[in-house]
């Protein structure tokens, strides 16, 4: 028997208005979901960054237990076998290799020669994941030795894989400790070199030999390592600075002369020629601050709003009231160190409460 035709309304699709409403609802949901996903990913990256710093801090302590002092931030050696002058040697990270399960790299590094020497090209290309913050993706790039890099490293040695970089640096103190012994004969240290080394008030810097016992400010109140974001540099600087095996002061060391994330606060000045600011200051891609390892092995996130001393914009960004010694090395003068600077000194006798940072 045939059924009578349906007398009701037939089914239909979405109207244009209904479709737009659905799309709008989906867009709102995505807008709410994306920040949560991004926050979760950043939390994961930040946790991995903390783990990296803990691993590096443990390696530094193991080195101290073996050698009797923390690894020097840098010391000088020869460029090559035929050289009669000093050149940049190895740094703290090179010295810590045996305690980072990198014995093969330790064996491959020739400590008689500088970090830039052709004899050490193999080690220069080793990529250490413990030195890469996941939020600083540029640090894990491997760059071939060509162009400007030939001026640093010379022509690449056979089998060279290029060079890699670092997201972390050692704590020099309240100011950089730098000196160039390139024109000085091997085996001699001039008075100005000694003056610069003696000005260091951090824990790992040029010529340092800091013992844990000498950190009289307290290991829980003294910085050991900090973030030093590689990706904040311009494209050219990313190839020539912050090479992980380098002892150059702007590559693997940081100081508290400038505030955390100074590249944000002094962007106009940097663009105007203050190229050294992003090299010497601690920085990161984590929102609001950066991670730091302390000398007790703990890792803490310091806000970029932490109290710091006043910058003198008429004196190339040095602190207001800073003084200089006979060889242009830094001296406190009337400058007033604040919380951030107090955390970077090993024996400044400052009192810093935990709620200050």
Q: Enumerate the spans where pLDDT stays under 50 for 5 or more consecutive residues.
A: none
Mean pLDDT: 89
Structural classification = alpha+beta
Q: What is the molecular shape?
A: globular
Task: Give the termini distance in whole angstroms.
Answer: 86 Å
What portion of the residues fall into strands of 2 or more residues? 5-15%
- The strand order across the widest sheet is 5-3-4-6-7
Count of distinct structural domains: 1
Bin the helical content.
Answer: 25-40%
By DSSP, the count of extended strands is: 9
Number of helices: 12
Radius of gyration: 26 Å
Question: How are helices and strands ordered from N to C?
Answer: HEEHHHHEHEHHEHHHEEEEH
What would you say about this model in short?
The protein is of the alpha+beta class. Helices cover 31% and strands 11% of the residues.
Characteristics of this structure?
alpha+beta; 31% helix; two-stranded antiparallel ribbon; 357 residues; 11% strand; five-stranded mixed β-sheet
What can you see in these coordinates?
The chain has 357 residues and is of the alpha+beta class. It has one domain. 31% of the residues lie in helices and 11% in strands. The protein contains twelve helices and nine strands. The strands form three sheets. A five-stranded mixed sheet has the order 5-3-4-6-7. Strand 6 and strand 7 (299-303) form a beta hairpin. The longest helix is centred in the first third of the chain and has 52 residues, at 16-67. The model has no long low-confidence stretch (mean pLDDT 89).
